Amino acid sequence: xxxxxxxxxxxxxxxxxxxxxxxxxxxxxxxxxxxxxxxxxxxxxxxxxxxxxxxxxxxxxxxxxxxxxxxxxxxxxxxxxxxxxxxxxxxxxxxxxxxxxxxxxxxxxxxxxxxxxxxxxxxxxxxxxxxxxxxxxxxxxxxxxxxxxxxxxxxxxxxxxxxxxxxxxxxxxxxxxxxxxxxxxxxxxxxxxxxxxxxxxxxxxxxxxxxxxxxxxxxxxxxxxxxxxxxxxxxxxxxxxxxxxxxxxxxxxxxxxxxxxxxxxxxxxxxxxxxxxxxxxxxxxxxxxxxxxxxxxxxxxxxxxxxxxxxxxxxxxxxxxxxxxxxxxxxxxxxxxxxxxxxxxxxxxxxxxxxxxxxxxxxxxxxxxxxxxxxxxxxxxxxxxxxxxxxxxxxxxxxxxxxxxxxxxxxxxxxxxxxxxxxxxxxxxxxxxxxxxxxxxxxxxxxxxxxxxxxxxxxxxxxxxxxxxxxxxxxxxxxxxxxxxxxxxxxxxxxxxxxxxxxxxxxxxxxxxxxxxxxxxxxxxxxxxxxx
Length: 532
Description:
alpha+beta, five-stranded mixed β-sheet, 532 residues, 58% helix, elongated, five-stranded antiparallel β-sheet, 12 strands, single chain
């Protein structure tokens, strides 16, 4: 309730009380004096004049509609004078109870100190009047009775004043809270309407309880405001948004009736790609009362992202082509030189020269194979494999290479089942262990760990080599970045691609002079299809 409205209501009640009090005063005058004496007309005129002033001031307070301390004081004073006049002229003992009318009005209109002081004054006046008209008092009436009335007046005034003070404090706090909530609600409403997202909320009857302007604009609904759609059936909006869509297949209905949440679910409607989010809203009893949906058109963003990926792919292919040309040029130069030498000298190449030519050809072949591995990305079905078994089969090859380099294997292998492409996992293991062995030319320990955790499977390869320089560590997944003199820089790129296609992550930690640890983390529930 607004403060002005409250004052108007209080003034109306006070005015009603004054009218009733005035009628009662006239009745008292008529009953006590009758029509035969001059005192009747004198008392009637005085009473009538006071009533006229009383009602006029009361009406003026209502007309102004706000608190006016002068008018309030005049009403209280006129009430006091009229009651005193009636009491002095009639000596009705019961009239002193009417003093509660101005006491209550003063407690409502003024502060606690003034109202208590006024009630005490009324008690004193009541006592003095009794002393003046003691002959007219009822039998057995004493001064103690007046004192008791005075105490009653003060207690009632004090209690009512305390109540009014508490009510005023609570009311002001409610006003502030209400204003704050209104501002927050208005701000929230403006934010929702200004957000570039379509927002929709429906109730259990599948009626719209909230919708923003963006959702209306997206459905090409013109000359309508969100307020106009509140309470409308959801189907009416959907028919305008997707005219040929089956209403029963809406995800928000699944959320409303089954409590299923959707996050960034992509759907295609009317040749548009729409990203959809829905969430049920519960009451205190954990029952679904609303379902909220947020959706937006991501067609343009997806086209832009696809173009960016194509550009990145073309850029990478260009870089790789240039790098491959450079890498293959060296062995081809060697092969060409020996062949030209043999052609001019017309002598057969020696076995060592032939071995060198074969090694250079194999080097070219290795570069091309790695290039095809990193550039090829097709969809392949994952099957459930025993990762421990795959790793143990590769240990034969790993141990042979490790013995030649004076490297000792340290194994910690758990049982682990994983949906994967077996050939790619083999290539991943061989590439990582081959790099680790090459990093220890003077020998050392190679740690191979396979850990089966509740949520993931971890493959860890740790060496005791010289480590990878910090400036290169962040670029190891880039093709042709290598610290080896004769390396192609494609091995780790292939490993990163294999990990990505399995939904895994690779983390490399390396310290100069201590060694490098490669951690591959596989999720236990990857998708059944590798990403294209």
